[in-house]
Amino acid sequence: MNVKTKRSQVVKSQSFFLILVIIVISIGASLLNPNFLTRSNLFAILQQVSVLGIVTMSMVLMLISGLIDLSVGGMIGFSTVTITKLTMSGMRLEFALVIGVLLCLGCGFLNGLIVSKTKVVPLIATLGMSYVYSGLALVISGGLFLTLTTDFDFLGRGKILGIPVLVIIFLLVTIGMHVLLRLTPYGRRVVAMGGNEEVAFLAGINVVRYKIYNYVISGALVALASLVLLSRLGSVLATVGDGYELRALAATVIGGVTFEGGRGTVFGAFLGVILLGLVANAMNILNVSSYYQTVVLGAIIVLAVVISNIGKMRS
């Protein structure tokens, strides 16, 4: 009976549904274009979604703990523009990278401080801070393209044993987030906090402190995503991070992580990232207009949320 119950739960899970959708899309796209399922194209998809995947892992941590961070796109722009500007002014790359990382950590700490100490709704607070970080990026860059004056391509374009480094980083971050949330006391406290903040507080969890910790961890992941993105592109605009927060949120929700907090899996969010990458790549190969791609992305998000809600209503 237990085995049947477990099988039933697997079949009804969002991850199982996503795997089926990924398989169907892969087969359909390969029938329309045989180049879709080639090794080179599959690696290209993983490369295209790696930065988004790293940012998505930070969003998983946020949503599961009952929080949200809409400032990640602004932080990416702020960090990458600052690093590039510093190298253009003659600073050594290593020092510029450290400053870029510290900026993201500081932004995360500031976000956590505002949300935890003022009781402002996280969505509103981080949305406002997104404009602050984006504005600072524009001030620093002057709205111009900035190009690195030194080589920094290993993270974004290097390979280890034929596997792109940024793909390895994405997979390691995914595994690390799974371990953090599922196999550590910290993760269990975060999940409990997301499930019911008041109960978590009564159980002795320092909710304020953990909110700040979560935003700092999110800042660290955004810093990593910024370095990978900068390494891959070599030159940036202040708006380079625009849209990452919404796509990361989309991948997370598609993967079954709920806005209510306390529910969802890292694996589901990982599948959400892969699904978005597959759909975008398939539509590019089939020469679908970018305007229609936006429509399809919105439809996928709505469908995923509807299916998730139907599953909760039945449970």
UniProtKB/TrEMBL annotation:
<keyword id="KW-0812">Transmembrane</keyword>
<keyword id="KW-0472">Membrane</keyword>
<dbReference type="GO" id="GO:0005886">
    <property type="term" value="C:plasma membrane"/>
</dbReference>
<feature type="transmembrane region" description="Helical">
    <location>
        <begin position="266"/>
        <end position="285"/>
    </location>
</feature>
<dbReference type="Pfam" id="PF02653">
    <property type="entry name" value="BPD_transp_2"/>
</dbReference>
<feature type="transmembrane region" description="Helical">
    <location>
        <begin position="212"/>
        <end position="230"/>
    </location>
</feature>
<feature type="transmembrane region" description="Helical">
    <location>
        <begin position="291"/>
        <end position="311"/>
    </location>
</feature>
<feature type="transmembrane region" description="Helical">
    <location>
        <begin position="120"/>
        <end position="148"/>
    </location>
</feature>
<feature type="transmembrane region" description="Helical">
    <location>
        <begin position="160"/>
        <end position="181"/>
    </location>
</feature>
<feature type="transmembrane region" description="Helical">
    <location>
        <begin position="93"/>
        <end position="114"/>
    </location>
</feature>
<dbReference type="InterPro" id="IPR001851">
    <property type="entry name" value="ABC_transp_permease"/>
</dbReference>
<feature type="transmembrane region" description="Helical">
    <location>
        <begin position="16"/>
        <end position="37"/>
    </location>
</feature>
<keyword id="KW-1133">Transmembrane helix</keyword>
<feature type="transmembrane region" description="Helical">
    <location>
        <begin position="49"/>
        <end position="72"/>
    </location>
</feature>
<keyword id="KW-1003">Cell membrane</keyword>
<protein>
    <submittedName>
        <fullName>Ribose ABC transporter, permease protein</fullName>
    </submittedName>
</protein>
<dbReference type="GO" id="GO:0022857">
    <property type="term" value="F:transmembrane transporter activity"/>
</dbReference>
